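Key result, reporting period 2: structure in, sequence out.
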């Protein structure tokens, strides 16, 4: 669709940036916080890139006021952050830790005092360790009830202060990485257990929304999904069918549950035939069908390209074993693995796309495709909760010249504006990330932020904050409400 003129961004568009508790806060045992599965996982040598951990991270826990002042200087309209469950309920399901609640209330108040809308994520992967040890984490239905209790504590405390709430962050990423690939905690490699744990997370999402309707009636809530469209390698009908299978396997399996209240028939039948389907009770079905989110959070980095499955095409899947370079949004099946997708499609490289230094495809047009597909399929307002470029940023005479990040973000925002002009309802855009932070798979070497943080994998150094060139570029984007998003301008 060609437009002679693009629509202006809405006057109340939420220009934002994002973060996650474990990746920025530090203070891993401060003020009564309980250990999480990530605190435990990072203690074992070899589990993380160069044995990095979040014990200090970028020390946002002690420097949040300074960070909020940088947000104010940038002109942010919104800031997406997550709450560490272990700060609120140290054992996951018992006594409330007032000091933990006070930290987030202070952060929220600081944001509001500086004109910044808080977007609160309830779960961004840091499950309390006690729940993992007692109930096998998300494999136990008891964890669903514990999550409901945790959410209700936050709802009661922050109702009236926080308008937008995100339930689960990238369930389609943390479940496979934790239960299939073993690259994240709890370091399981079992597809049957993976699909059951995933089902319990779906139940937890539904329970959280049910409680929200009662306790925060004026608020808005929805999950945040790591979405990318699936392309066929060619117009060969077999490749087109493979792309349809890929959409079901990688996307609809989660999104249909969130937005339609039921699993897609195609995927459920394939998993049943393979003996991998989760146990779903009639009560589960009723709960899932009873809720619908107010909006859909979208984390977009890229999509994927597929061709006809290997059994009919007669070729082999690619393998991926080095998790320091793995792409969690397009992970290939391992040699010899019982993998349901092998009968559906083969993942291949897209010959039309360049890649980042970390091997992720760069596809701005795919952003528009994604937004269009989601709006058409689910008819919900969209909040872009993540989009950004991980890169090797280097200090040059005390400055960070990240034109590559500016180009990346500018191209994606132009496609977002085109999607708005197409008719997609988009509430806001949160770049990933506001500051540099701990990458789950790549330590502190892979940087995303508008604000450089002076630390590396071996040392916290001084943790000095330094705005990059992209900081000032985004500052101008916000100040002009996107009016400066034209080619060649930075």
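The corresponding designed sequence is given below.
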């Amino acid at each position: 669709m060609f437009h002679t003129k693009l629509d202006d961004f809405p006057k109340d568009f939420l220009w934002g940036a994002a973060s996650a508790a474990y990746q920025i806060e530090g203070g891993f045992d401060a003020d009564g916080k309980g250990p999480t599965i990530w605190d435990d996982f990072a203690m074992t040598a070899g589990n993380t890139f160069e044995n990095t951990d979040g014990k200090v991270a970028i020390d946002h826990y002690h420097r949040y006021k300074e960070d909020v002042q940088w947000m104010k200087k940038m002109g942010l309209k919104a800031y997406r952050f997550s709450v560490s469950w272990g700060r609120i309920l140290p054992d996951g399901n018992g006594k409330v830790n007032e000091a933990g609640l006070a930290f987030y209330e202070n952060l929220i108040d600081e944001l509001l005092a500086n004109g910044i809308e808080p977007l609160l994520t309830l779960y961004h992967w840091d499950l309390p360790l006690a729940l993992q040890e007692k109930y096998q984490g998300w494999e136990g239905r008891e964890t669903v009830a514990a999550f409901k209790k945790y959410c209700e504590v936050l709802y009661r405390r922050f109702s009236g202060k926080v308008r937008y709430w995100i339930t689960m962050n990238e369930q389609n990423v943390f479940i496979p990485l934790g239960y299939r690939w073993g690259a994240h905690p709890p370091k399981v490699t079992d597809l049957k257990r993976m699909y059951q744990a995933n089902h319990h997370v779906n139940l937890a999402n539904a329970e959280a929304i049910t409680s929200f309707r009662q306790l925060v009636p004026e608020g808005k809530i929805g999950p945040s999904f790591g979405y990318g469209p699936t392309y066929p390698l060619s117009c060969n009908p077999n490749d087109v069918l493979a792309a349809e299978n890929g959409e079901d396997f990688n996307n609809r399996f989660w999104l249909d549950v969130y937005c339609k209240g039921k699993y897609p028939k195609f995927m459920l039948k394939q998993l049943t035939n393979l003996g991998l389907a989760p146990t779903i009770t009639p009560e589960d079905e009723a709960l899932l069908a009873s809720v619908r989110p107010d909006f859909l959070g979208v984390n977009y980095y890229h999509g994927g390209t597929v061709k006809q499955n290997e059994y009919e095409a007669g070729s082999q899947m690619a393998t991926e074993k080095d998790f320091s370079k793995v792409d969690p949004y397009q992970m290939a099946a391992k040699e010899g693995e019982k993998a349901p997708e092998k009968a559906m499609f083969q993942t291949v490289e897209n010959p039309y796309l360049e890649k980042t230094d970390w091997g992720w495809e760069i596809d701005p047009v795919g952003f528009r495709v994604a937004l269009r597909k989601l709006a058409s399929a689910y008819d919900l307002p969209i909040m872009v909760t993540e989009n950004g470029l991980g890169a090797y940023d280097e200090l040059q005479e005390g400055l960070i010249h990240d034109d590559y990040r500016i180009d990346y973000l500018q191209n994606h925002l132009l496609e977002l504006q085109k999607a708005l002009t197409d008719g997609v309802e988009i509430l806001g855009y949160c770049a990933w990330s506001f500051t540099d932070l701990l990458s789950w798979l790549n330590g502190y070497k892979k940087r995303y932020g508008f604000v450089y943080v002076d630390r590396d994998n071996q040392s916290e150094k001084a943790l000095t904050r330094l705005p990059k060139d992209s900081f000032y570029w985004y500052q101008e984007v916000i100040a002009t409400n996107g009016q400066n998003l034209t080619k060649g301008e930075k």
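Residues 14-227+283-300+353-479 form a domain with the TIM Barrel fold (CATH 3.20.20.80). The radius of gyration is 21 Å. This case is discussed further under Risks and Mitigation.
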